[in-house]
Amino acid sequence: MLRVAENPVPRFPIGRPLSQDMGSWWVARVKPRQEKALAWDLARLGVGYYLPMLTKRTRRRDNGKLRKSLVCAFPGYLSVTDYEERKAEILRTGRILNLIKVSGQEQFVRELEQIYQALSHSTELEVQPHLAVGRRVMIASGPMQGLEGIVTDLRRPRKVFLNVEIFNRAVMVMVSPEELVPLEEPREGIRLRA
To answer: Does the pLDDT value for residue 166 go beyond 70?
Structure first.
């Protein structure tokens, strides 16, 4: 298992906004447990990518100590730019099963930017194995201000799900109910409350 410092950077080139690569995003479906290795290969080739990673804490069985590691938020996938220009080099890595052209670039980038912003404030998020369905809200204050997501439990709106449609997954963030603003007109009798 890699130490946290031995992992690839989540975004390459470092500091480059995801929106700067608008129009050139592809999603690579990678061989099992090859996401980080592909990220290292792409960085060596100078190819842009985004690989969101979450902190996972587990307790060791042998001595009970806490172990911290970074795991891929969307296992089996890596978002890649410059594929059309560098196709031969990228495929030569031997780590890719297939590539998916992202048709809705604006929505894809918006969803990834939300994940990027959420991870910049907390690496301890939870990934759900499906898209969330519920009430659309916006986080109006706090460190995750501006994020738009879904609240599934209107009685206790603490969990906000950030959907990423191309991966068919949602990332759950915890917020205070006072920070939420509904984005749709509520049906009669339904309100967000603390």
So the answer is: yes
* Chain-centre distance for alpha carbon 48: 16
Domain-wise residue ranges, the chain: 1-121, 125-194
User: Three-state SS for 105?
Assistant: helix
Q: What is the pLDDT of residues 62-108, one digit of tens each?
A: 888 888 888 999 999 999 998 888 999 999 999 999 999 999 999 99
Q: Which CATH class is domain 125-194?
A: mainly beta
Provide the whole-model pTM. Answer: 0.87
**The two structure tokens encoding residue 159:** 């969990």
Cα–Cα nearest to 48, from 83, 88, 77: 83
Fold of 1-121: Alpha-Beta Plaits (3.30.70)
- Cα–Cα distance between 99 and 194 in angstroms, integer? 44
| Tokens found for residue 177 | 């109910």
pLDDT of residue 3: 66
CB 12 within 8 A of CB 42: yes
Whole-number Å distance between alpha carbons of 137 and 146: 10
Answer whether 70's CB lies under 8 Å from 55's CB.
yes
Q: What is the largest CA-CA distance in the chain?
A: 58
Going by their DSSP bridges, the two strands 135-139 and 180-182 should be labelled as: antiparallel
